[in-house]
Amino acid sequence: MKSDWQCSHCFKTYNFEEWRNLKTVWIDENQRQYGKTMACTCGKLFHVDKWKLRTRHKLGYIVSTVHLELAHPSNMNFSTLDEETMWYETMIFTADKAGKTLNFQVRYPDQKSAIEGHILTYKMLPRIAEKPEDFPQDEIKIFLDVLDRDEYQEEKEEFQNTIFRKEKKV
Predict the structure, then answer these.
(1) pLDDT digits over 95-126, tens only?
(2) Which H, E and C letters describe 78-121, residue by residue?
(3) Residue 85: what pLDDT?
(4) By C-alpha distance, which of 82, 72, 81 is closest to 106?
(5) CB count, 10 Å around CB of 110?
(6) Helix crossing, 153-160 with 111-130: angle to 10°?
(7) How many CB atoms lie within 10 A of CB 153?
(8) CA-CA distances (angstroms) from residue 58 to 24, 122, 123, 134?
(9) For the chain, what are the domain ranges?
(10) Confidence label for 167 from pLDDT (cuts 50, 70 and 90)
(11) What does the pLDDT read at residue 36?
């Protein structure tokens, strides 16, 4: 399997050898107890300066979408990277300290799809929590296919009418 790494800030992609040769820095310079991580040539730290969206839902869940930094396969085939490398992932966690999740995971190839998927997951959360078995856990295109069912037409229309602007927080 391919092992490319991508910076969450400048989105520069490194193969494993390039990533391994990046400068390493202490995660916590003062205490030096958390170990080291790689620093991108732009200066941002891998694993620390990660792009993410987190939205708390009134039902007691948190919808979390993150930039994975390490190339991942789609959920369809974990043994190989399909034609598209998945760089983003949405999951749903409970807001309590146990941090349990709903059995829900969606991966995306790009940031635009990840933002759209995050918004859609948030809007569909009541339905996902009620009947998680109805929602496939794969790329956004398959997730959106669920919305073609008659019972989800209202949510689909609402989602399609959503205009997302960068300056607006989810």
Answers:
(1) 776 666 677 888 888 999 999 999 999 999 99
(2) CCCCCCCCEEEEEEEEECCCCCCEEEEEEEECCHHHHHHHHHHH
(3) 83
(4) 72
(5) 15
(6) 150
(7) 11
(8) 40, 10, 11, 21
(9) 1-50, 51-165
(10) very low
(11) 87
Nearest to 87 by CA among 64, 71, 106, 63: 71
Asked if residue 107 lies in contact with residue 74, where contact means CB atoms within 8 angstroms, the answer is: yes
| Cβ atoms of 116 and 139 closer than 8 Å | no
Give residue 154's identity as a one-letter amino acid code: E
* CA angle (59 as vertex; 122, 116 as ends), nearest 5: 5
Q: Say whether 161 sits in a helix, a strand or coil.
A: coil
* Span 72-81, average pLDDT: 55
Amino acid at 163: I
Residue 169 has pLDDT above 60, yes or no: no
pTM confidence score: 0.71
Using DSSP's 3-state secondary structure scheme, residue 38 falls into strand
For the record, the structure tokens of 30 come out as: 């003062």
